[in-house]
């Protein structure tokens, strides 16, 4: 006599809620990226923005000029990431192993991106400080305090996102959750 087949592992609420929220966010990201792509085709903002800043006599940091020059590519990368995140969220909802692993990869990339943006913004702030002149930072304690507070908030925000993503990854790697997923 053959033993009875193992009972299916009950679906955890954590995975289901995480998947539905992520599906909604991913779909919104895809829709937003598609809308932005249409806007980039109809009204290329890179040259418009450069012209506006030049007309105002304001110099732009090299990093910002790079962003303006590559808005289409950045939008495409964002759209592709949103599509991959949506697919991984669907796989997570359907309890597929590829969905769990893809979702974890998206969380890791999201945390790395958060730190990369933090460093980019700090470089931008440093450039702005040099453009304002050393006298402003040295003579205006309010400016110095605001700049310090913004740096602290960026570090805290990037670290908080990384910790939250780490906790979610840890939870998705527990034996009880892994048992829900089929290969």
What does this structure look like?
It is built from eight helices and no strands. With 183 residues, the protein is mainly α. α1 (13-42) runs antiparallel to α4 (71-93), α4 runs antiparallel to α5 (97-132) and α5 (97-132) packs antiparallel against α7. The mean pLDDT is 87.
Offer a quick outline of the entry:
This protein is mainly α and 183 residues long.
What is the CA-atom radius of gyration, in angstroms?
A: 22 Å
Can you tell me the residue ranges where pLDDT is under 50 for at least 5 consecutive residues?
Answer: none
Estimated structural class: mainly alpha
The percent range for helix content is: over 70%
Report how far the terminal alpha carbons are from each other.
Answer: 28 Å
Order of helices and strands: HHHHHHHH
Tally of helical segments? 8
Mean pLDDT across the residues is 87
Strand content is under 5%
Shape: elongated
Instruction: Specify the biggest β-sheet.
Output: none
Count all strands and give the number: 0
Write the topology of this structure.
Blueprint: H1 13-42, H2 45-55, H3 62-69, H4 71-93, H5 97-132, H6 134-139, H7 141-172, H8 175-178
Helix pairs in contact: 1-4, 2-3, 4-5, 5-7
Key terms:
mainly alpha, elongated, 183 residues, 82% helix
